[in-house]
């Protein structure tokens, strides 16, 4: 299936697992790009590409300290998605727990018939 | 008897207009399909613990309609309806879906797939909205509902916000 043009908002920016890894790392504090490369084992061009996307949607901010560019997390744009996805997932989880019970019963019935 | 172990629902947003929910079940796919499409069985799980299912009507054929409603706490009706566009028994269901509480949002398209491996079934529900604005509207309405739950992936990030 064709993906929509990516990363026009924070919701979409965090759909990419490697970008979530970067956010998780920056959640622990401000870091230079080299650190991100070293810790996550991705290439520098790839990390830079993801950081650019994250900056564009406001999830990451950057400042220069001497010759180093320091990246840090700005989680605010994630709050709405976090709240919503948590709720949505929880509501489906409760449904699925009930569905588990129904399935267990169907399997028992089937075993009796066999 | 099969152990009652089950998976965890995982929700992701694959693009600006989609929501993908997946969950593994400890049962073969024909039974998951049966529980998904049989009105008297739907009544037992569809409301989760949010209320009681009051309507579960399913005309399971291409062009056939469905409607589900529940009395949600605190005492208001939540209803969805739609029409089947594709019905492949035990494999795949494609349908429109309209949330009656937000008719302006128009119809989403739902694709439900059942994939079996070793007696276990992965259910995936892909919901496609007509536009990003509408998806965001759905998201905004869910937030107002104040639902709570857990999403491990983003948990750490959210904690760092406080």
Mean pLDDT figure of chain B: 80
So what's the CATH class of chain B? Answer: Alpha Beta
| Largest sheet composition of chain A | 3 strands, antiparallel
Main β sheet profile of chain B: 8 strands, antiparallel
Number of helices of chain A: 5
Number of domains of chain A: 2
The termini of chain B sit apart by 46 Å
- What spatial order of strands do you see in the largest sheet of chain B? 1-2-8-7-6-5-4-3
Overall SS class of chain A: alpha+beta
CATH architecture of the largest domain in chain A: Orthogonal Bundle
Query: What fold name goes in the CATH topology slot of the largest domain in chain A?
Result: Arc Repressor Mutant, subunit A
| DSSP strand count of chain A | 3
The largest contact between protein chains, plus residue counts on each side, is: A-B, 49 and 54 residues
Q: C-alpha Rg of chain A, in Å?
A: 21 Å
Individual helix count of chain B: 4
Q: Secondary-structure element sequence of chain B?
A: EEHHEEEEEEHH
- Distance N terminus to C terminus of chain A? 41 Å
Would you give an account of this structure?
The complex is a heterodimer of chains A (114) and B (162). Chain A has 114 residues and is of the alpha+beta class. Chain A is built from 5 helices and 3 strands; from the N terminus they run ααβααββα. Chain A has 2 domains: 10-73, Orthogonal Bundle (Arc Repressor Mutant, subunit A), CATH 1.10.10.10; 77-114. In chain A, 63% of the residues lie in helices and 12% in strands. The two termini of chain A are 41 Å apart. Chain B contains 4 helices and 8 strands, in the order ββααββββββαα. Chain B has an 8-stranded antiparallel beta sheet. Mean pLDDT of chain B is 80; it is low at 143-162. Chains A and B meet through helix 2 and helix 5 of A and strand 1, strand 2, helix 1, helix 2 and helix 3 of B.
Write a concise keyword list for the protein shown above.
heterodimer; A: 114 residues; Arc Repressor Mutant, subunit A; 3 strands; 63% helix; 12% strand; disordered N terminus; B: alpha+beta; 8-stranded antiparallel β-sheet; 4 helices; disordered C terminus
